[in-house]
Amino acid sequence: MNQFAALDLQVSIGAQEIFKIGSFSVTNALLCGIAGSLIAIIVLVYTALSVKRGFYNRFVGLVQWVFEGLLKQINDILPDKKLARKMTPLAMTVFFVVMFDYWLSVLPGLDTIKIAGVPILRSVTADLNFTLALAIITVVTVQIYAVKYLGVFGNIKRYIRNPLKSPIGAFEGALEIIGEFSRGLALALRLFGNAFAGEILLIVIGLLASYAATVVLPFFMIFELFIGFIQAYVFFVLVLIFTSLAVSHGGEHSEEPA
Amino acid sequence: MQPLTQFATTTNGNVFTSLGIDWQMLILQIVAFLILVFILGKYVYPWLIKSVDERQANIEAANKAASEAQSAAVDAEARVEKLLKIARDEAADIVATAKLESAAALSASEEKAKKRSEQIVADAQGEIQKEVVAAKKALHNETLELVALATEKVVGKAVSSKIDESLITDSLKAVK
């Protein structure tokens, strides 16, 4: 503990402000988020242009392979092809942006390159604003498609049922409401927790290993790259599963006696 | 450690602020992400989806062509097998017929050859018989002439008809 105190290890749960534009504070996570999103855009646009022009190389092939795999997953989870195509942009963007943003936390210089004592590098996935934003977008999108497929009253019926007619159904509905909130919160906290813990892990390993960090850290960085891919994939799959559950609810209840 | 002091101050302050949640930032991130989804969904993903669909279609077409070719090959094999069977049967029939015909032709030709040879032999015997008779006759005449000549030379003019006759008869006996 004395050593840590001497090293002045500072870990902040929230993203730290680097500078202000008017009353809006620009944080380190926001800067990294912009960088990560730009990388995702560049990679996807480059791949799309290459495909359009019929120019292929290993990188384009790799991105196309990943894209094809994800598209297959979307079609497998959402049997309705029309809905699958509508959900593709959101699910794909979630995957690529989360993955590239997560991977930015693996860049050397984490917690060491600082401006006015604030580290510049902090993955936007380790900022609750971003993960919460993604969770809100997911939950709202799922609700929009649920209303579209089940109708307004059909969707409300998922949550509110007559306790006199079906007490178990009413309890189930209440659980469904709690479930919606918990799903959204779990989405946000899972990604934040993993990214934040990953960054702390890298910082602590770097401090503990001292000069041996050059040998030890790459292993943890590779591990973090893998975790980044897994987290992006988990988020991507959960977005699809929540949508699938919401739109398939109608089928279950349509069999119930009126 | 700053986090501990941060949590300590949280009890008095706003929990969202201490977790780093800034509503302004949250709304900005939501809007920015939705714009990103819209732009990528409008201009980037369609090309990638199109390429994936085309590749899928190509794979499906290739699979279909391969399965069609396979079934065509199986059909062709079955047809070839059937044709071969028919050809084998026909060949067997032809061989059997040819054997029968050749056997019949052989026996017929044998019969014909036998008859012909018998005819030739009979003709030859008849010819020989005629020639023998003719030769005997010619020999007889020549002998008679020779005998007459010889008798004339040996006996000369003193020969009477009685002696001549007996001489002739003796000569003939000697010749025989």
Write up this protein.
The complex is a heterodimer of chains A (258) and B (176). Chain A has one domain (17-254). In chain A, a hairpin with a 2-residue loop joins strand 1 (17-21) and strand 2 (24-27). The longest helix of chain A is centred in the last third of the chain and has 43 residues, at 167-209. Chain A is 74% helix and 5% strand. Chain A has eight helices and four strands. In chain A, the strands form two sheets. Chain A has a two-stranded antiparallel sheet. Chain A has a two-stranded antiparallel sheet with strand order 3-4. Chain A starts with a helix and ends with a helix. By secondary structure, chain A is mostly helical. Mean pLDDT of chain A is 86; it is low at 1-6 and 252-258. Mean pLDDT of chain B is 84; it is low at 1-5. With 176 residues, chain B is mostly helical. Chain B has four helices and no strands. Chain B has one domain (2-175). The termini of chain B are far apart. The interface between A and B is large, with 42 and 34 residues.
Largest sheet of chain B: none
Low-confidence stretches of chain B: 1-5
> How many domain modules of chain B?
1
Question: Order of strands across the biggest sheet of chain A?
Answer: 1-2
Shape of chain A: globular
The radius of gyration of chain B is 66 Å
Keywords, please?
heterodimer; A: 258 residues; mainly alpha; two-stranded antiparallel sheet; two-stranded antiparallel ribbon; 5% strand; globular; disordered N terminus; disordered C terminus; B: 176 residues; 91% helix
